[in-house]
Every structure is written in structure tokens, then in C-alpha cells.
Amino acid sequence: MRRIHAVCRSVDVMVLLIVGAIIVSLSCNVTSYSINCPVPPEILLPSNINKVAIINRANPEKRQGTLEGIITGEAPLMDRKIAQDIIKELHRNLSSHPWYKFNIYEGGEEVSNKKPDYFSTPLDTSIVFEVCRKSNSDGILSLEFYDTDVERSLPVKQEEETTDPKTKKPVKKISFSQTTLYKGKAGFRIYDCSSGMVIHEDIITGAAEATTTSATPLPAVISTTAYHEPTISKIPIAIASTYSSKFFIQFLPFTTNLYKGKGEELKECAALIIMKEFNKAIDFCSRNMENEYLPKIKSRLAKNTAIAYESLSLDKDWAEQIPLLDSAINYTKLSIYFKPTYDAERYLIHLQERRQMVSNFLKK
Length: 364
What we know:
Layout: H1 2-27, E1 30-39, E2 51-56, H2 62-72, H3 78-94, E3 101-104, H4 125-135, E4 139-152, E5 156-163, E6 170-192, E7 198-214, H5 229-232, H6 234-244, E8 250-259, H7 264-274, H8 278-291, H9 295-313, H10 318-338, H11 342-363
Parallel strand pairs: 2-3, 2-4
Antiparallel strand pairs: 1-8, 4-6, 5-6, 6-7
Helix pairs in contact: 3-6, 7-8, 7-9, 8-9, 9-10, 10-11
């Protein structure tokens, strides 16, 4: 009987432990809450610029393109074609911009830059005014130069065991592979039509790699770009995509804990946030936080209030976001004060970084 009684008592203890674990897990009920945070565009044009002409100044002289091809193994005038492709890709990417209207302007020799690999003297103001007038634009986005550098590895010998189809005897198949790296560099400027001056300057790089295989080791100069046309075509796409993205708002996801808890206050607070009733959530969560006496619950209500403030800021203009982010930061600090957690500390860093980003953008 003693043994049976002892076993029953141990089972009772186990049941109590399981029930206790369930209660604790319910009291710590959390859910992942994802926020898509808007990141300001890197390039913000002045308010007087709405229509932008895209021009191609990257027009290296024919003799330079041919000489470069002989030395490096590049196809003659490859840079000129890539520059043209960059202009087309830029227009395709920027044509859907919600704020600015971009159009390609076919300039003549007056806008050409004969230097292939660096910024030349900016367009004369008289030419800027003329291009603006002819294109009916407020600004000019200019591809000032484009240049490709080619790096080739030494041929690598490869041996493969195979069978001769005629003799059916084992033979060694020898081949040589060579890797070619194309590195493109493009320079961009933006001109303001009202002043004729440069207001932005940037250099964007892009790269693509290709491998060719041959039965004989090919000298680098013979391994021309004809083998790698699909690879080279990736460069203008990459450069145009990188540069055009600077004109658009980006969204970075951030995930943090939203506390539900066992109590009615936390449940209601979280439910309002999930239903996107952010103003109601701020009022309810902050009011219940002030009336709560348990530090752990106060901390969680403060954290949820911070989430509601940041969520409310997402659809606001940049200037309106600052006070909402300040409130989110203050409530997160309160959450850490009542009960420090790694999640709250990580969330505070996120809020501070986002506020700094918006503040820097507003100063432009």
C-alpha cells in the first residue's frame, strides 16, 4: 500500500506541475507582430522638380572603344551599348514613380561625354537650359559615363574519365575552363533646370561572371564577349535597378512580440492592435498601464502601446511620423523600466534607428 500511495502521490505532483506549466504559458501568451517599416528614398528631388529628362552622355569615342577592346578582350563599343541599355532600363524602372515623371531625351553631340571612365565637366548651364526647354522638364537625370573592366582567370585544365564510343575503351577527356568577370561602373548626375546646376552625383557598380569551356586553352584576347552576351546583359539591369531604387520608398520588415496574456486588459489591448484600431489601442493600453500595479503587466501594456504608436505612424507623412515614433520610444523605455526584456531592448534600438532615418530625410 505504501508503494501504491507513493506512486499516486508522484503522479499527483506531476499533474500539478503540468497544470502549473500550462497556467504559466497562458499568462505569458505572446504572438509575433510584423511591421513593414517605410524607409525614406535616398534621393529626394526639390519640390520644383516634377518632370525629369533622362539623357545619355556616356558616349566614348569609337577609337577609344576599339583600343580598349584590343587590350582587354572586350568587344568594341560594348560600353556604348551597355550605356544605352542602362538608359532603357532606368526609364522602365522609373516610369511608374508616384511623384516624378521620367522621359528619355535623345541628346546630340552637345551633351556627349567622350571620356569613358570618369566624370567630365558638368553640362554648361546654357546646355542644361536648352535641354530642359526642348524636353519640357524641370530636371535632368544624366548618365555621365559608363566603363567596363574585364578580369579573366588563367585557363584551368580539367580531366574526365569517359569511354570512347568507337573502341569502348576508357579514355581521358581533357578540357579547359576560364572564368571572366565583367565589372561595370556608371556615373550619374542630376541637374536642376531652374539653376542649371548639379544637385546630385552618384557612382553605381554592377558585375556579372561567366565561365567558358574549350578543348584547348584559349588566349584571353581570343575569348571575346561574343561567348558571354547573356552574362553582359545582366550588368545594365543591375546598375539601373540599384540606382532607380534610390528614388523609391523601401519597406523593411521588423518582427517583435505583441503580448496577449491571460488578463482581460492585455487581451483587449492586443486585439485592438491586431484589428488595426491603433488610436483606440493607444488609449486603452496606456490607460490600463497606469492603473496596473504588477510590474510585469505594466511592462507588457507599455510595450503594446509602443507598437500601436509605431503602427499608427506607418501611413503618416514623414514629418507626422516623428512625434508618434517619439511616443513609441518613450513607452518602450517604460516597458524596459518596469521589466527589462531582450525583445523590448531590441525594439527600442529599432525605433531609435527608424526615427534617426526619418529625421535625416527631413533635413534634406
